[in-house]
Specification:
alpha/beta; three-stranded parallel β-sheet; elongated; Rossmann fold
Length: 313
């Protein structure tokens, strides 16, 4: 039997060694062609091409996203779909009672082929795409769509990439444009207790330097996260007031999307950039030059604040 094996080398649980084991087992019993994806949507193209070239079975070694692409490539074709696992969850394979482990799934596939067993699965259609199990709409669909656009983040952070995108989407979905004039512009750090604040890593005590001495204000808000990008997006969505490094939001300050408040009250805690190098009598000139460059570039004021000052003037 002619089998086209479509493998996603970037799937969560697909390694070159795992792929080679699957290839060796299938090739020992059937005529096999290995096709590897290289970009989003590629599996759909490969599946359609494999069927046109005479493949009777298209096997997928990859996650649910790759499976969905292959399903769309097999639409209206007579070729059978085989699921060999390799993804983080393998929702469709589990729903059909198939093994999630590629090794066990390959063994099971050989058994089913030998027995001539097939199962018909109904497809749903959403727009121009079809799906075999479920389709995400609204917030859930938006989260998956954005994570799939950033494959590198998905590979590095796994499920946390979805959590981060969830927080970002919730900020946008809230649809609340925060205006300081709604509760009055804070003129003193103590006014922050009456405002909606966006909190980083549960840091609810904000310290300031005032003419009367150090002052710590306990702030509150509906959103707390350990992701700086989420805080920035929350500010742009009008979610409230936050402590934010100006280098991260400088473009938005220049455009007027964001504004600063309490400029007359410096923060009680500042963040420094440290240059750490071995203590020795002779410091190489290139090290001295690099440290001088850092001091000039990130000194007082740092280049991003200097750009803001020039833009304001």
């Amino acid at each position: 039997m002619r089998i086209a094996l479509i493998a996603n080398p970037h799937a969560s649980r697909v390694s070159s060694r795992q792929r080679d084991r699957v290839v060796a087992v299938l090739a020992a019993r059937h005529k096999l062609e290995l096709l590897q994806t290289s970009h989003p949507g590629h599996a759909t193209e490969l599946a359609a091409r494999a069927v046109a070239d005479g493949a009777e079975v298209v096997a997928v070694l990859g996650g649910d996203g790759t499976v969905n692409e292959v399903v769309n490539g097999l639409r209206d074709a007579d070729a059978a779909l085989a699921l060999l696992g390799g993804g983080r969850v393998n929702v469709l394979a589990r729903g059909l009672g198939l093994p999630a482990s590629p090794d066990r799934a390959t063994t099971r596939l050989l058994e089913l082929l030998a027995a001539g067993t097939r199962r018909r699965v109904s497809l749903g259609v959403a727009g121009e795409r079809c799906f075999a199990l479920n389709a995400g709409l609204g917030l859930g669909g938006a989260i998956v769509r954005e994570v799939e656009r950033r494959q590198r983040a998905k590979q590095l952070y796994g499920d946390r990439a979805y959590w981060s995108e969830r927080d970002r989407q919730l900020c946008e979905a809230a649809g609340i444009r925060y205006r300081v004039n709604r509760r009055g512009t804070p003129h003193h750090p103590s006014d922050l207790a009456q405002h909606e604040c966006v909190i980083l890593s549960d840091q609810r005590d904000w310290s300031f330097v005032t003419p009367a001495g150090p002052l710590t204000v306990r702030v509150g808000g509906r959103l707390a996260t350990d992701n700086g990008e989420v805080i920035r997006d929350a500010l742009l969505a009008g979610f409230g007031i936050a402590l934010k490094s100006t280098w991260d939001v400088a473009p938005h300050l220049r455009s007027g999307e964001l504004v600063t408040v309490l400029d007359s009250y410096p923060l009680g805690e500042t963040v420094a950039i440290w240059a750490v190098y071995p203590s020795r009598a002779f410091v190489p000139p290139k090290t001295v030059a690099f440290i001088d460059f850092l001091a000039a570039h990130f000194g007082d004021p740092p280049y991003w604040d200097d750009e803001l000052d020039r833009a304001a003037n």
